[in-house]
Design a protein that fits this description.
Elements lengths: L5 H40 L4 H36 L2 H7 L4 H4 L1 H38 L11 E5 L2 E9 L4 E10 L5 E13 L6 E14 L6 E13 L18 H8 L6 H19 L4 H6 L1
Helix pairs in contact: 1-2, 1-5, 2-5, 5-7, 6-7
């Protein structure tokens, strides 16, 4: 007798079609909701749009761990509902097929998804969560190259303020530039220029050059008359602020891999509060995976 016969293949087809559809629908809804908030967040921080898709990619394991059980349960539920409404379930029972036998294929699918979800929840999700937090930190700190907001004053450093009226060619050409630069001696430079652009220095990655064209510099020093200088081209060096590196992985329990949580949760050398928190997170992840074994019984019953 074959382990998988035609009836099993029929049930497999009935389960897989709605299961994949629900999985994609649930994941898409979660991604779309997060995408709108990320676009708003990145626009507020002035970061590159490409980072939105990197952050979304790091959120996919978390969404997959939610969508997989949902798709599995509803896939089995809809499959057996179709069998029941078309009286096929009664025919199968009449020819001697028990409910246990009919649940063979759903449980095979469940075991495969349990293994996949265990890998996601125990290993992939903690790593992706850490990389998401790292991107979030770099975006807020400006490490990803936050853009100059048009029409607003932007503080590039404590003593430098910059305003751009218009940006062209994807930020390569800046129009209507005003800059205010001060130093420790109280000297203030008010610079206006028709246009300009940023240039990078190969040997000095912490410094960029703002090349200005067709403008004026008003030099104001304490106790002296201001001086006005006109220029055709002027290079304004700007030192970029130092950005601290992001913390090591493990700042939060959900960033630990499952074996790491096990070591922390049953390590008597660490404080009890940390041990209890690690044990709770470990138990939550294990239950999240193990409870999938009950879904065929709930959906098929």
């Amino acid at each position: 007798m074959k382990f998988i016969n035609d009836i099993d293949r029929y049930i497999l087809r009935l389960v897989l079609m709605p299961m994949f559809g629900i999985f994609l629908l649930a994941a898409s809804l979660l991604v779309m909701d997060k995408m709108l908030r990320l676009f708003d967040f990145v626009a507020t921080e002035g970061g590159p749009i490409g980072v939105v898709f990197k952050m979304l990619a790091n959120m996919l394991p978390e969404y997959a761990s939610l969508a997989i059980p949902l798709g599995l349960m509803l896939g089995i539920l809809l499959a057996f509902r179709k069998l029941a409404t078309s009286s096929e379930l009664d025919v199968m029972r009449a020819v001697g097929l028990s409910y246990t036998r009919m649940l063979r294929v759903p449980y095979i699918i469940t075991l495969v998804l349990v293994v996949a979800n265990f890998a996601i929840v125990g290993y992939l999700q903690p790593l992706s969560r850490y990389y998401y937090e790292e991107l979030n930190y770099e975006l807020k700190s400006g490490a990803l190259g936050a853009s100059i907001k048009v029409g607003e004053f932007t503080a590039l450093k404590d003593r430098i303020a910059l305003r751009i009226d218009e940006s062209q060619d994807n930020g390569q050409r800046l129009m209507g530039i005003f800059a205010r630069v001060s130093n420790e001696k109280g000297q203030v430079l008010s610079i206006s220029a028709r246009e300009g652009r940023f240039l990078a220095l190969k040997n000095q990655p912490d410094t960029i050059i703002l090349r200005l064209e067709q403008g004026q510099i008003i030099q104001d020093m304490p106790g002296k008359m201001p001086r006005v200088l006109s220029f055709t081209r002027h290079d304004l060096p700007i030192e970029l602020p130092a950005i601290e590196k992001f913390r090591q992985r493990g700042g939060q329990e959900r960033e630990y891999l499952l074996p790491e949580l096990m070591k922390l949760g049953w390590n008597k050398d660490i404080p009890k509060e940390n041990r209890v928190s690690s044990q709770a997170n470990f138990n939550y992840r294990v239950v999240e995976v193990v409870m999938m074994l009950l879904l065929p019984l709930l959906a098929g019953g």
